[in-house]
Amino acid sequence: MAQASAAATDTSPLQCARCQSGTAPSLPPEQVWDGVFDPKHRTIAAGEIWGIRESLIVPIFMLMGVDPTAFLSRPSTTSSTTSSARSWSFTPSAEEIDVAYKKRHAIRPCVLMSDHAPTDEECDICLLATFRGTKRREELLEIFQYVCFPIYPHVLSANGVHLHFTPEWENDCTWLMAYRFSSKRPLKKPIRSRDVGNGEATIKADADVLAQIDTLSRECYQLWQSKCADDPETLPRCLQGFRRFHERANAGRR
Q: What is the pTM of this model?
């Protein structure tokens, strides 16, 4: 299984205080929905979950060191796919990927990894994804297995490393992509929970969860680099698989 070995951040049910207690922490007043969501009017706190028009290809291209122009302009062959990778130690910028990838991205949720002020031109994020309801890790694309971790109440929360939000996430098939990157795309709106009594609240990753995500992100990247250094076939194999995934997505079948 291509997954970071995260002993220091293991949150299996036996070690997860949240799972053991069976209760979520109380909501601080600032998380109660006040209707003020325009990111131009307030600093968005680290840990808040917002919608952003961003693509899964951005963190994956960064992780794999893909030349986005070459990848997106060449036909699907093993040789062309392999040549799209400059090096597993190269990281293209989100802006470089955007220039090559001209399609309009869908809005998807992300975790703000640091505070985002109205004057900031970039936001530091990790993306969330459902992969059309995929719940089994082995059914994820190989490259996604390196960076994806379940968000409680995902069914895999009972079997190992997982993450909690406050209030709890409402979808049971959501994964966090533990690859932290900077995006210049604007934040659209906060993700809210309606399961908080008579009102609503913004959903947030608490400080300890943010630290867990940050650690997982570093561990996943180190695992990927180590795997590519030890096995020269890893990068071309993952690239070829990701190209097929990308082509299916463009055809509307993902």
A: 0.81
